[in-house]
Specification:
single chain, 80 residues, alpha+beta, Histidine-containing Protein, Chain: A, HPr family phosphocarrier protein, HPr-like, HPr-like_sf
Length: 80
């Protein structure tokens, strides 16, 4: 399993712990982070991503997902 695959699985599993809507914006595409398939087709190195989280547990989700992105050296900005 490549590092990218490990990142995708961990991001999806982390996102699925939360009730909030968690969407990753990559250029003009919006991907549901809870969808492994969506992440596989989008998450490639070198891109800058924006993470949009809305819902009852958004603060916790943002904090944990930011940690996972950083751990895998993915460039993400968490949007408030």
């Amino acid at each position: 399993m490549s590092n990218n695959n490990a990142a995708i699985v961990e991001l999806s599993q982390t996102a699925n712990k939360y009730r909030s809507s968690i969407v990753l914006q990559a250029e003009n595409k919006y991907i549901d982070v809870k969808s492994i398939l969506g992440l596989f087709t989008t998450l490639v190195g070198g891109h800058a991503y924006e993470l949009h989280v809305h819902g009852p547990d958004a603060d916790e989700a943002k904090a944990e997902l930011a940690t996972v992105f950083a751990k895998h050296n993915l460039n993400v900005t968490v949007v408030d």
